[in-house]
Amino acid sequence: MEKMNQEKEALIYGLLEQLELKSYRKDTLNNYRRILKKLSLYMQQNEVPVYSSDIGNDFIEDYVSSHNTSVSFQKTINT
C-alpha cells in the first residue's frame, strides 16, 4: 500500500511539474493540486487502487452532486 501511495504521489508531482513547465499559473496549479488530493481520498475511501476514466467520472459525479459548485469549478474538475 505504501508503494502505491508513493507511486500516486510521484504521478501527481509529475503532472503538476509538466503543467508548470507549460506556464500554468500558480492558482491554477493549486486548484489542480486540491482536486487531485480529493480524487486520491475518494479512491482510498472506495478502495480503488488504480485510476481509470470510469473512476474519474464517478468522482466528478459524486463531487458535483454533493457540493455546491460553480459552473467554472465544474469545468475545471472535468479537465
Total beta strands: 0
Strand content: under 5%
Q: How many helix segments?
A: 4
Shape: flat
**Residue windows where pLDDT falls under 50 for at least 5 positions:** none
Compute the average pLDDT: 88
What's the alpha carbon Rg, rounded to whole Å?
Answer: 13 Å
| Quaternary form | single chain
Specify the helix fraction band: over 70%
Structural class, please?
mainly alpha
Order of helices and strands: HHHH
First-residue to last-residue Cα separation: 27 Å
Sheet with the most strands? none
Please tell me about this protein's structure.
- Helix 1 packs antiparallel against helix 2 (26-45).
- By secondary structure, this protein is mainly α.
- Helix content is 78%, strand content 0%.
- It starts with a helix and ends with a helix.
- It has helices at residues 2-21, 26-45, 53-66, 71-78.
Q: Tags for this entry?
A:
mainly alpha, flat, 79 residues
Topology of this protein?
Elements: H1 2-21, H2 26-45, H3 53-66, H4 71-78
Helix pairs in contact: 1-2
Please summarize what this structure is.
The chain is an all-alpha fold.
